[in-house]
Structure prediction request, 160 residues.
Amino acid sequence: PSLLYCTTKESVRDLLIKYLCPRDFRRGEMEESMKINMKKRAFTFLMILVMVISLVACGSKSIAGNYKLTEIESYGEKMSVEDLANLLEMDIDMTLNLKSDKSFVWDTGFWGEDESVRGSWQIEGDSLILIVEGEELYGTFDGKNINMDFEGEIFIFEKQ
Prediction:
C-alpha cells in the first residue's frame, strides 16, 4: 500500500519503517532468503563437483591394453571369430596391443602363420587412428571394444 492509502498512524509508521529501514524491518525475511541462497549455492557446488569427478573418472579409462578379435561384421551380419574359424576350418588368433607410449603391435594369426604389424596410434574423442608406414586406419573406441572398419568389414576387438 502507498502512503496515500494508509488510514491509521500505525500503518503509516509501519510503512515508513518498511521503506526507510528495510534492513531492520525485514531482517528475518532477509536471513531466510540468505539461508536458501546459501543452500542453493552449496547444492550447485556439490553437483558441479560430482560432474567433474564423473568426467575425470570417464576420461581416465585408458585405451592402452591388449585386445583380442572376437567378432567380425560384414554386410550387417555379425559372426564370432570361433564360428568363422570353424566355418573356414582355420585358426584365427588376432590381437591388438596398444601400448601406453602410443605405439601398437597388431598380431594377425591365420592358418597358424603369425605376422605382426607395428605402428603408432592416437585417439581423438572416440575415434582411434592406427598409423602404419604413413597409412591411417580408422576405428572407434567405446570404452571396452575397438571397432576397426576395413571397407565395410568391421573387426571387433574386445579388451582383455
Observations:
- The first strand starts at residue 65 and ends at 74.
